[in-house]
Structure formats: C-alpha cells, structure tokens
Amino acid sequence: MRPVRSAGPQLDKLIRRDQLEAARASLQQSLPINGLLGLASCLVAIHSGHGTLGGVWFSASTAVNLLRLGLCRAPCPGLATPTDGTSSGETAARSIDWHLQLACLAALLSGLVWAFLPALCDGYTSGQTLFYLTVTCGITAGAVTHGTSFARIPICFITPPLLSAAGCLLAAGGFDRICLAATVLLYLTALIRSTIATEKTFRETSRLKYEATVLAEARKAAHASASALAEEMHQQATHDGLTGLLNRTGFTQRAEARMAASEAICLMLLDLDGFKLVNDVYGHTMGDRVLIEVARRIRSALPAECDIARLGGDEFAVVFERSRVIENPVALAERLIWTVTEPFDSFDAGRLGMSVGICQWPTESLTHLLSCADEALYAAKHAGRNHFRLFDDGLRRRLEMRRECERGLSQALAEGALKVWFQPIFGRDGRSVTSLEALVRWHHPVHGWVSPPDLIAAAAMAGLTESLLRFILEQVCTMLCALRSRNLDDLSVAMNVSPREMAQIPVDDIILARLQTLGLPTAMLEIEITEETALDIDAVQGKLLALSRAGIRVALDDFGNGYSSLASLRQLRADRVKIDRSLVTGLTEAEDKRELVQAVLGLGRALDLEVVAEGIETADDLATLQAMGCPFMQGFHLGRPQPAEDILRSLEDLADRPRPIHLHGSRPSF
Ligand code: C2E
Ligand code: MG
Ligand code: MG
Q1: Whose CA is nearest to atom 36 of ligand 1?
Q2: What is the SS3 assignment for 69?
Q3: Which element (helix H / strand E) includes 86?
Q4: Can you tell me where the transmembrane regions are (predicted)?
Q5: For the chain, how many structural domains are there in total?
Q6: pLDDT in tens, 91-138
Q7: Could you tell me if residue 328 is inside a domain?
C-alpha cells in the first residue's frame, strides 16, 4: 500500500486508482463468461438457421472482448506512480481517469454488440427468445455483480442490450410482451441503482482504508517524533553542549552503571592548569575553543572503553572498568597531561597544563569514589602544574581527617574549641606593630592542629562557611574593642576571607552590620582576599565595592603565588598587596626572588599600594627587605601568630616600654 500524505483531492485520486484496479480485475474475471455466453448464443443461432448472422455477431463480440482485455492489461502510469501533489503525480492521476473512460467506452461498445442479439432471434419473436432473453438478463446481472467499483462501466454495458430487448418486445406488441418490456426497463433501473449504490460503498470502503492508513502513518510519525524528541532531551540532559562529552548527570549514570557491573573501577578527575588565564587573555570565545580542543584530545588519548565527561568549567572526569582497559592508569594520566600540553594553533600552549587525580580504590559509592579522586586531584594541584596523583593510604588518612573535621566542626564551634590567633605586621623599622592578621586555629582532639585551609574546606563541606565567618568576625571585633580600650586604635586588624566565603555569603552586610552594632570604626578592619576571588568577579564585585566605600581596606594576599595580574589588583580594589612568602623566605640568597620582590615594591610605589612582605624567617631576610625599602613586614622572625591575650599583653608591653619587641608566640605544627 502506498503512503497517503494528505486527504481531500489527493484521497479522491487514490480512490479512483483503487476503482480502476478493481474494475480491471473484475473485468478479467467476467470476460471469459461473456465469451462463453457469446459462444452459446452463436451456437443457438447456428442451430436455429441464423448461422451467418450468429458468426458475424460472435466475431464482433470476441473482437470487442479482446479489446477490453487489451485495455485491462494496457500499462497505466497512474497505477505505477504515486498520485501525490507533484506534477508527475498529477499526470498519473489523469492517466487513471483516462483509462476509466476508455473502459467505459469499451463497455459501451460491448453493450452495443449485445444489443444486436435480438437479430439472432427475429427481435425476440422466434422460439429461441427465452434463451436469448435469459442470456441477456444473465449477462447484465453478471456485469453489475462484477462491476461494483465503477458504476459507469456496467451501466454502459447493460443499457444498450436491455433497451434493445425492451424496444424489440414493445415492437413485437401484445400484452405479455409489453409487460415483459416494462419489466426489462424496471430491471434496468434496478440494476443501475444497484451498481451506483455498490460503487458508493466501494468508494467509502476505499476511503476508510486510506484514512486508516493516514491515521496509522500519523501515529507512526508522531511516535517517531516523540521518540526523537525524547532521545534529544535525553542527549541534552546527559551531555555537555559545548564539548559533546557527558555532563555531570550523564557521567553519574554511566559511572554508577559501571560500578554496578564491576568492582574494579578507576576514576580520574582532570583539571586544567592556567585555564583562567587563557580566558582572561584571549577571551571566552577562545576559552570555549580551547575546551572543545582539550575534550577532543582527551577523547583521542583514551581507549574507547572509557567514559569521559566535562563536569563543568575546566574540570573533566574519566571512568572505566579496570578489566576492560589494559593500560595502567598512571600511563593514561601521563599521556593525558602530555596531550593537553601539546602546542595549540591559536595560542601559547605553555600557559595550559593539566592536573590529574586518580582513584582506583574499591569504594561503596560513587560519591565516595569522587571525593577520593578529588582528594588526589587536590594533592596533584598542590604539587604544581602537570602532576598526577594516585589516591593512596596517606591521602585516605587525610580525607578521613577532613571528614572527621567536617563532622566535629559544628560542635567545636558551639563549644568554643576554635580560636583566632593574631600575627603582628610591622612597619619598615621591623619594630613598630602597624596591624595584626587574624588567623583561625583549631586543635582537634584526635588529629591535633588542623591547618586553616583544611578547616575552611571542612566548613564548606559541612555547610558551616557562614557560621565560621561570623565566629572569626566576632573574635576580630573583640580584638578591635580590646585595642580601642587600650588606646591602640591606630592599629588595624586584617581578617582573611576565602574566595568561597566572598562569593557565597553576604560578607559585606555581615561585616558592616557587626561593626555598626559595636560602634567600631571601619578603618580598623582590613580584609585579605586572594586572586582566586576574581574567578567569580561578578559575585564579589558589588560586595568589595560596598566594603571599600564603607572604609574597609582590601589586601591582596599571596601575591606572586598565582597569576599576579595587574587586572586582579584593579578588579579587586586592592589597597594593599601582600607578597607571598614563597618569594620572601630566603630571598637574601636568591637573586630571582629579590628581583621579583623589587618589582612588586616598584609596582606598589607606582600604583600607590601598600606592600607587605610575608614569611620573613631570618634576620638576613629582614635586613634585605629593609634595604630594599619594603614598607611593611610579617613573619615568624618578627612575630608568630599568638592567642589574643598574649598578643594584647605584648602590645601593652610594647606601649609601656618604647623599645623594639619581638613577639614570639607558640607555633602550631600542622
Ligand atoms: P595567609 O593569609 O597568607 O596567612 C599567613 C600564613 O603564613 C599563616 O599560616 C601564618 O601562620 C603563616 N606565616 C606567617 N609568617 C610565616 C613565616 O615566617 N614562615 C612561615 N612558614 N609561615 C608564616 P596559617 O595560619 O596556617 O594560614 C594559612 C592560610 O590559611 C592563610 O594564609 C589564609 O589564607 C588561610 N587562613 C588562615 N586563617 C584564616 C581565616 O580565619 N579565614 C580564612 N578564610 N582563611 C584563613
Ligand atoms: Mg592572609
Ligand atoms: Mg598570605
């Protein structure tokens, strides 16, 4: 069955094609009977002494029957070509109409031949009348029975012989014959009505058939498009639009399926080094192109058995079953790092690197596997660019420690187990304290001193970031009050605010509201942020503006450790720059460090920024920095972080005795 694409005229053409097909089939069935009845009529004619006439008549009848048979078998383009709305479809439809008309003409011709039947029986007056009348009735009834599809064909066929029969009977006269003629006419009318009615039924059946086909096709198409839509939605929900790799959802599904199938799973977390710089220097369009290229390289560097995902930003993940990948994960990680650091066409690839964290420990859940790989990635990042790290026993202990810290932090905060210590920052003379830096401290009952970055991370994991910030702010405010009450309000206190705190918490509102409540001058507070804060500049810019407008100073911490870009100095509204201790500690012996410190000092003078050198551990480094004209200094050599009471006592001593004092507090070993 051919497809139906539209109803209306198109449907009508299809019905007509069905009509022609059915008419041809039924005619081929009925023509042999027609021939046999013709032959019988001819034989009766010969027997009754009308042999010549009978032979002529039978020859004419056979010729017409052969013509009709030929027409039935003649090729019709409309039966071979779809009758759609195209021009070839129109031609095809016209050919069907043309063949139907020809069939009608041929039927009329045949009917006319049969109309001459009375000639064989002297106009229905001879003794063979009954035979010929019966034959005429039989053949016309048969034509109607067979010609159900297209009424005009049987009508053309039956009308001439029945009219001629009625005419002859009327002409012969007599009551019986006149009645018979009337009956023949009635019979003709009944046959015509019947054939018209059956054609209607045929057309209706054909229409229903096509409508059912249309409906079935529409349902099929709707089902196909619904399936395609569902497939597309699934693709979008599980894949990253930029790189075509799996996204976090898709990755979770695949990784969980792999974990269900096998116990030995390897998970790798990949993080680009220096991608922010690529974005900053070359723009986001280039950044996107780099991510696409990196994704391509990762895919081509790994066996097909690996599932690869972009988890977001410049973070990628790979998961595979160990049994399906022969290569060692370490070799894979090395290849990945190598392939990503290969030169790029459009920019200096030296700026881009990749760190990899690998976990192949059997774990009970994907979440745990991810946190183990994340721990390994964190350690790899810590080791510098282009490193990979396997999750091992050491990292497991560290992770457990972090977990326990997460669990215990809330209680520690509530019980006051957390402390804030203060480290002094000195002026150029290395004697006078100009400000203090607040540093959080926690002595865990099992794990001992917890390093502040671990503590900040644990707070984030435990959802306690804001509580921790409020606690530290409270301690800082207490210190500010203590300084004021001792007439030391020319000293300021710096409080560290991590990028996450800066981005996620209304730091500005919290700090300003607290200072206002306590009536503390904003000039006494400084916040220290790092360059990573600029990573989410949209989220932090407004807060930094509010703080600096209110008079709170901003110090850019750990300068020289990251990108150290002039853009971040401007974006982050820094008043002060703190040179990272990696550049300061041991600078007396290292010329390159001295040059870098000198450059930052020059930058400070040029941009009117205060410069603090942190990490001064020796008298030599102090002297070198003093000689270089460093205005502010901080370090264990000058003064270690100490509890609030100790530092206040030292400051009081300093105030009482106008002589240099070195503040040597206790030092937690992390
Ligand atoms: P930071 O802000 O750069 O703080 C200075 C860090 O260097 C402190 O480490 C301090 O103890 C240490 N330090 C100071 N002088 C010397 C020195 O001469 N030699 C050496 N080796 N180290 C020195 P700490 O307290 O472990 O803090 C580490 C980092 O944790 C801080 O770096 C800061 O980024 C973060 N942090 C500390 N306290 C807080 C806090 O309350 N909130 C937030 N958000 N971060 C904090
Ligand atoms: Mg700091
Ligand atoms: Mg620092």
Answers
A1: 452
A2: helix
A3: none
A4: 98-117, 129-150, 162-188
A5: 3
A6: 888 899 999 999 999 999 999 999 999 999 999 888 899 999 999 999
A7: yes
Residues 426 and 392 in one domain: no
State which of 197, 218, 239 marks the end of a domain.
218
Both tokens assigned to 350: 């030296």
User: How much is the pLDDT for 302?
Assistant: 95
Find the 509 Cα to ligand 2 centroid distance in Å. 21
Minimum CA distance residue for ligand 1 atom 19:
615
Q: How far is CA 131 from the centre of its chain?
A: 83
510-519: average pLDDT: 97
User: Across the chain, what does the average pLDDT equal?
Assistant: 91
587 and 449 share one domain = yes
The Å distance, Cα 71 to ligand 2 centre, comes to 102
| Residue 641 Cα: closest atom of ligand 1 | 11
Q: Probe ligand 1: pick from 423, 426, 439, max atoms within 8 Å of CB?
A: 439
pLDDT band of 656, cuts 50, 70, 90: low
Report the nearest-CA residue for atom 20 of ligand 1: 615
In Å, what is the CA distance from 310 to each residue of 80, 299, 338?
Answer: 54, 11, 19
Is position 656 within any domain?
A: no
In three-state secondary structure terms, 48 is coil
> How remote is the CA of residue 628 from the centroid of ligand 3, in Å?
20
- First CA to last CA distance, the chain: 82
Count other C-beta atoms under 10 Å from residue 72's C-beta: 19
Give the confidence band of 276 by pLDDT, cuts at 50, 70, 90.
confident
Cα pseudo-dihedral 268, 385, 540, 241, rounded to 10: -40
Beta strand extents in 388-432 (DSSP E only) = 388-390, 418-427
Q: Report residue 262's pLDDT band, with 50, 70 and 90 as the boundaries.
A: confident
Quickly count: other Cβ atoms within 10 Å of residue 567's Cβ.
Answer: 13
Centre of ligand 2 to C-alpha 437, Å, is: 7
Domain co-membership, 350 together with 432: no
Q: Find the domain containing 383 and state its range.
A: 248-401
Q: Which residue, among 390, 402, 396, has the nearest Cα to 453 in the 3D structure?
A: 402
